[in-house]
Amino acid sequence: MTSIHKSYHVAKNDFIHAGEASIHVKNLLKSMNYNQDLVRRVAICGYEAEMNLVMHGGDGELSVDVNSERVILEVADRGPGILDIELAMQEGYSTAKEEYREMGFGAGMGLPNMKKNSDALKITSEPGQGTHVSMTFYNKG
Amino acid sequence: MKVKELVEKFGLKVAAGQTGLDKEIKGGYCGDLLSEVMGNAGVGCVWLTVQAHQNIVAVAVLREMAAIVITGGSTPAPETVDKANAEGIPVLTYPGSSFELSGRIYAEL
């Protein structure tokens, strides 16, 4: 299988287009006949990462790199960064604004969902500079 | 059960996504926290929620749901209707609570 790389711009506060990058990625993987479990896991992680860019990240990019062995999903933003990554990983911890919580976001489940559904998760963040998240999903056939 | 049978049986109103009414319902899920639904709802489910904003459609598409039911008498935002029509995800409305409707659907699935 050839390697495919795609990148999507995700704009701050753009709730109108939020989720579209993840839907593109999901359709791409389905068209490449990846197994249902891998597609499901990438879809969940992609959506969580995309919503984090919309709500917290400032402008950012969501990119996917696919080959026959694995899918790598990366998000990079120029937002405020994460001060305490360990704290942010705790289920229930959220810094989302009240208006986002009323929409059903900000339950503090995004990063835990990403950890649970990826095979490897790496977060690097510099306060004031932005955040970079990389997730790997192995193709188990 | 198909989505259109669910509509008839429980007196639901079709607000959007007519083209998806032939989808088969394989289960149900209730929830208003989007991440929680995203992580736990099953493929082919009917999702009962009080959320009516446009972002529910992406969750339904990504989880390959059969339909969304907005309970509690809310109506979907115009953007929700447009997105659901574009994606072929039926958005249905029900005036009663999620609790009541889920009990009725559970007994029939």
Tags for this model:
heterodimer, A: 141 residues, alpha+beta, Heat Shock Protein 90, five-stranded antiparallel β-sheet, 5 helices, 36% helix, globular, B: 109 residues, alpha/beta, Udp-n-acetylmuramoylalanyl-d-glutamate--2,6- Diaminopimelate Ligase, Chain: A, domain 1, five-stranded mixed β-sheet
- For this structure, what is the CATH homologous superfamily of chain A? Histidine kinase-like ATPase, C-terminal domain
> What's the mean pLDDT score of chain A?
94
* Strands side by side in the biggest sheet of chain B: 1-5-4-3-2
Structural class of chain B: alpha/beta
Would you tell me the overall average pLDDT of chain B? Answer: 97
Largest β sheet strand count, sense and barrel closure of chain B: 5 strands, mixed
CATH architecture assignment of chain B: 3-Layer(aba) Sandwich
Remind me, CATH topology of chain B?
Udp-n-acetylmuramoylalanyl-d-glutamate--2,6- Diaminopimelate Ligase, Chain: A, domain 1
State the end-to-end CA separation of chain B: 7 Å
Q: What is Rg of chain B?
A: 12 Å
**H/I helix tally of chain A:** 5
Shape of chain B: globular
Quick summary:
By secondary structure, chain A is of the alpha+beta class. Helix content of chain A is 36%, strand content 27%. Chain B is globular.
Tell me what the structure shows.
- The complex is a heterodimer of chains A (141) and B (109).
- Chain A is an alpha+beta fold and 141 residues long.
- Chain A has a single domain (4-138), classed as Histidine kinase-like ATPase, C-terminal domain (Heat Shock Protein 90), CATH 3.30.565.
- Chain A is built from five helices and five strands; from the N terminus they run E-H-H-E-E-H-H-H-E-E.
- Chain B has 109 residues and is an alpha/beta fold.
- Chain B has a single domain (3-108), classed as 3-Layer(aba) Sandwich (Udp-n-acetylmuramoylalanyl-d-glutamate--2,6- Diaminopimelate Ligase, Chain: A, domain 1), CATH 3.40.1390.20.
- A five-stranded mixed β-sheet of chain B has the order 1-5-4-3-2, sandwiched between helices.
- In chain B, helix 3 (55-62) links the parallel strand 3 and strand 4.
- The longest helix of chain B is centred in the last third of the chain and has 11 residues, at 98-108.
- Classes of the chains: A alpha+beta (141), B alpha/beta (109).
- Chain A binds chain B through residues 15-16, 18-20, 22-23, 26, 36, 40, 43-44, 46-48, 51, 103-105, 107, 109-110, 113, 116-117, and chain B through 32-39, 43, 49, 51, 53-55, 57-59, 61-63, 79.
